[in-house]
Specification:
The chain has two domains: 199 residues, Spore Coat Polysaccharide Biosynthesis Protein SpsA, Chain A (Alpha-Beta Complex), CATH 3.90.550.10; 58 residues, no CATH class. Helices cover 46% and strands 19% of the residues. The chain has an eight-stranded mixed sheet. α1 links the parallel β1 and β2. The longest helix has 28 residues.
């Protein structure tokens, strides 16, 4: 029987967390014969073995992708998918048992939906430090991404294979920002919707170095995308000014975002430091055209 749904997971040097993700997929509430899992090894060292993805419960296929880009790996998985629905997640997530059913049903219930994005919950210790508190509020703001920026992060995104083909898939040349780039194309064919019942859990970054790496990667993707669009220097200067004086973001943290007040206090200096670092990187790019 041909599977109706294909779950697509790129992985690079993370087989330990991939194993936990696959175990969670074995616990999905949907019948196991209606979905398949496609794991794409994106130049892991050592390579991911067949034993690492072996399961007696669900159908898992292992593919290889030589282009060093998670979006190239996702394209590979989508091209080889047998299902009519595509569910994207990452190797370091832990999907809830009803994740797959909820995400696919959200597409079926909205005939004009181009894609659906689910909730990404951060995995935190009982006493999170400042960076972990920041991640709680800002790690994956899926609602804002979908409603304001018209994309869903690929840690938790659903679409149809027909829509994915129609939009041309992800830009495989991007190392970051490919989900936003794809969403901006997909929104021309339908709307993005948020499904709060489709939940995956994701580990929070634990220190400034990990957060700094994310900032550099995502800003690099932003630059890659916008170089072809001829970035307006006036617009970038406005963004730099906004990052240097993040009044709106601070107000949003304390009066809009929900969560423990003490966590907000701990997250505040990380937010300001991050905004200042982003403004430095953007100013550096504006002056040198390099990140």
């Amino acid at each position: 029987m041909r599977p109706q749904i294909s779950i697509i997971i790129p992985v690079k040097d993370d087989t330990a967390r991939l194993a936990k993700c696959l175990k969670a997929l074995e616990r999905q509430t949907l019948p196991k014969d209606i979905f398949e899992v496609i794991v794409i090894d994106n130049n892991s060292s050592p390579p991911v073995s067949e034993n690492a993805v072996k399961s007696e419960i669900i159908n898992i296929r292992l593919l290889k992708e030589s282009i060093n880009s998670s979006f190239a790996a996702r394209n590979n998985g989508a091209q080889n998918a047998l299902g009519d629905f595509l569910a994207f997640t990452d190797a370091d997530t832990i999907p809830d048992p009803n994740w797959l059913n909820s995400g696919v049903e959200s597409l079926k219930a909205n005939r004009y939906a181009a894609f659906s994005g689910g909730k990404v919950e951060m995995i935190l210790p009982k006493k999170p430090d400042a960076v972990e508190c920041f991640e709680y509020f800002y790690g994956f703001d899926q609602v804002r991404y979908i409603k304001k920026h018209h994309f869903a992060v690929t840690a938790n995104m659903f679409t149809t294979k027909e829509m994915f083909i129609k939009t041309g898939g992800f830009n495989s040349g991007l190392k970051s920002g490919g989900d936003k780039d794809w969403g901006e194309r997909a929104i021309k064919y339908g709307k993005g919707i948020y499904c709060s019942q489709a939940v995956v859990k994701h580990p929070a970054r634990k220190n400034w170095d990990e957060l700094k790496t994310k900032i550099e990667r995502t800003l690099g993707g932003y630059v890659q995308i916008n170089l072809n669009r001829k970035i307006s220097k006036t617009k970038m200067l406005a963004e730099i000014t906004g990052d240097m004086f993040p009044v709106r973001q601070v107000m949003d943290l304390f009066f809009i975002k929900k969560g423990p007040f003490f966590w907000k206090i701990k997250a505040l200096p990380v937010l300001i430091r991050l905004k200042l670092y982003r403004s430095y990187l953007k100013l550096k790019f504006l002056l040198t055209m390099k990140i």
